[in-house]
Design a protein that fits this description.
The complex is a heterodimer of chains A (317) and B (253).
Chain A: E1 2-13, E2 16-28, E3 33-37, H1 44-51, E4 59-64, E5 67-68, H2 73-79, E6 80-83, H3 95-105, H4 110-123, H5 139-151, E7 157-161, H6 169-184, E8 189-194, H7 197-203, E9 206-211, E10 214-219, H8 221-225, E11 231-237, H9 243-251, E12 257-262, E13 265-270, H10 273-285, E14 291-297, H11 301-309
Chain B: H1 3-19, H2 23-38, H3 40-45, H4 58-74, H5 78-87, H6 89-94, H7 100-126, H8 135-162, H9 166-183, H10 195-202, H11 205-216, H12 224-250
The chains are: A alpha/beta (317), B mainly alpha (253).
Subcellular location (chain B): Cell membrane; Membrane
Transmembrane segments (chain B): 29-48, 60-81, 101-127, 133-155, 167-188, 225-248
Main location (chain B): membrane
Chain lengths: 317, 253
């Protein structure tokens, strides 16, 4: 679906040239759901814009949906859906009217465009708002209209740029359900950008981490997390004074490292935290240490980002 | 999708999105009528000043007012495309396969239609106040104002795309508005102007259209000024379309 080689995008700002994207290679196979994850200003949106023909690359090539973005932008546009960060619909138009018109822009005949409009209004829960002015929709509804507009011509590949930014938690969850639906029921390849870790984790089968205009990691969320050295195990003791004894027991587990004790809690990292746990509980039982609780936490994508860059993604929020 | 269908679709979308608010239409129709009522008598009172007809000035004044109306209806539509860019609707359009030229022409066509309708309305309203009717001349006058509306509209869109923010756009409008209106000769004859001001009026496309309109309003369709008015408006429009299409291909949304 996508084959990009050495994509570069430079911007001239006053007297200096800024390289927003510095030599990115991306391959996306049909049927994948890929998230570009990175902090604001990392170059994810710029990369996306080059793939959707909105921005010509300064260097490199990209074949999207079978066509070169530079040589045949029209062919690429016919085959992809793009849902941008803003409101794609025009104030003053009714929901139904706008959706139908968008279909006409892709060359659908009148009847097909009306049929597709009705179908999408149902699928994106906008049927009740069909004759409302788009300016009077809620944030979540307007976003769903944008998604509907991006799907009107049945593209095989859809791009979403920061799709949930500015939505309330409920609308956000709803939109993420629709993104999953694209993949599962509509068989559409999806590429999205996000700076929310949980979002990438929740919908993407593959995450491409972008920082300072370069790809710094690429894999399934699980593969990326395995780059972090193990799960985080937390043991909470009934009596704070037994913390040191508990830490001593923990240190005898061969795979345990980064052991930390504070208050009534002992924390450490280990591979396969879930498998280590039964053995640990027995070992703590021996000297008669009483547990109040245990917790095994798989690494998060934030841990991944921290490991890769030394910075937390949450820093800029 | 061919050029005609895409232009028609963009045009329909434009019209539909604005048809439910009649204010722009009211505003641009009221303005020429107010000029006619308030400024018309002053012009009439000037009597036989150089460049003015010695008798009734209606036939001289109405065409000028129509050019001013055409200007105020079509020259500001570039701010609309700036709002679309700000909101994200322009980005949405740019990822569709619709031809960039069709995006401009569809938008411009809306003001072309509005100007044609308004011109007929103003003509009809002024007949009872002494406007003599020259059917052929009037028909050609409507067509010419439509061409001018298209030209001004497309130049305005090009400016809206080239200038990155609303302040810059309205700043440009403020800089150009007074010189364009004054040197067009629409309100007072340029025959009164000193040489340097007259020279300035020669590079104002509106001045040529005003002169052409005045010939058309006395039924003188064969006057070379008419052909010149068409030529200037048309050339201005083609230049605007070229610059505008280029701007739309390069615009960063």
């Amino acid at each position: 679906m996508i084959n990009a080689r050495n994509l570069v995008r430079r911007f001239s700002l006053k007297h200096e040239t800024v390289e927003a994207v510095r030599g990115v290679d991306i391959d996306v196979a049909p049927g994948e759901v890929v998230a570009f994850l990175g902090p604001n200003g990392a170059g994810k949106s710029t990369t996306l814009r080059m793939l959707t023909t909105l921005l010509p690359p300064s260097d490199g090539t990209a074949i999207v949906a079978g066509h070169d973005v530079r040589r045949e932008p029209q062919e690429v546009r016919k085959r992809i859906g793009h849902i941008g960060q803003g409101n794609g619909s025009m104030d003053g138009l009714q929901v139904r009217e706008e959706l139908y018109t968008q279909g006409r822009f892709y060359g659908l005949d009148r009847r097909t465009s009306w049929a597709r409009t009705s179908e999408l209004l149902e699928q994106l829960d906008l049927a009740e708002q069909a004759s409302r002015d788009v300016a009077r929709l809620s944030g979540g509804q307007r976003r769903r209209l944008d998604v509907a507009m991006g799907l009107i011509h049945r593209p095989g590949l859809v791009f979403l740029d920061e799709p949930t930014t500015g939505l309330d938690p409920q609308s956000r969850a709803n939109l993420l359900d629709h993104i999953r639906w694209l993949r599962e029921e509509q068989d559409i390849t999806v590429v999205l950008t996000t700076h929310y870790l949980d979002e990438a984790d929740a919908v993407a089968e593959r995450v491409i981490v972008i920082d300072h205009g370069q790809i710094i990691a690429d894999g399934t969320p699980d593969q990326l997390k395995s780059k972090v050295s193990g799960d985080l195990v937390t043991v909470t003791l009934a009596e704070p004074e037994s913390v040191d004894a508990a830490a001593e027991v923990v240190s005898r587990i061969p795979t345990a490292h980064e052991i930390e004790s504070r208050g009534d809690v002992v924390r450490f990292r280990t591979e396969r935290g879930d498998a280590v746990m039964p053995e640990l509980v027995r070992a703590l039982d021996g000297p008669g240490l009483t547990l109040r609780g245990t917790n095994v936490q798989r690494p998060t994508l934030d841990d991944v980002f921290l490991t890769l860059t030394g910075r937390s993604l949450r820093d800029d929020e | 999708m061919n050029m005609v269908t895409s232009t028609a679709t963009v045009f329909t979308r434009e019209v539909r999105s604005k048809i439910r608010t009649p204010w722009p239409f009211v505003e641009s129709l009221v303005d020429p009528l107010l000029l006619l009522v308030l400024f018309g008598p002053l012009v009439a009172g000037l009597g036989g000043v150089e460049g003015l007809p010695s008798g009734d000035t209606t036939q001289w004044f109405v065409p000028g007012i129509l050019v001013v109306m055409t200007f105020s209806t079509s020259a500001f539509i570039g701010s609309g495309i700036q709002e679309e860019r700000q909101a994200g609707a322009l980005e949405r359009m740019l990822v569709t396969p619709v031809s960039r030229l069709a995006m401009l022409l569809g938008r411009v066509l809306r003001v072309v239609v509005i100007v044609a309708v308004q011109t007929v309305v103003v003509m009809a309203i002024t007949i009872p106040f002494g406007l003599d009717v020259f059917p052929v001349g009037f028909a050609v006058a409507v067509a010419q104002l439509a061409v001018l509306a298209g030209a001004l509209g497309v130049v305005s869109l090009a400016a809206g795309l080239a200038l990155t923010n609303a302040y810059a756009f309205w700043g440009m409008v403020t800089i150009f508005y007074t010189p364009v209106i004054v040197t067009s000769g629409a309100l007072l004859p340029m025959d009164l102007a000193p040489d340097w001001l007259y020279a300035v009026s020669r590079i104002n496309p509106l001045a040529h259209v005003v002169e052409a309109q005045r010939s058309l309003f006395v039924g003188d369709v064969a006057d070379p000024a008419v052909a010149l008015g068409f030529g200037v408006a048309f050339a201005f429009g083609v230049a605007g379309a070229l610059i505008g299409t280029r701007a739309l291909n390069r615009v960063r949304v």
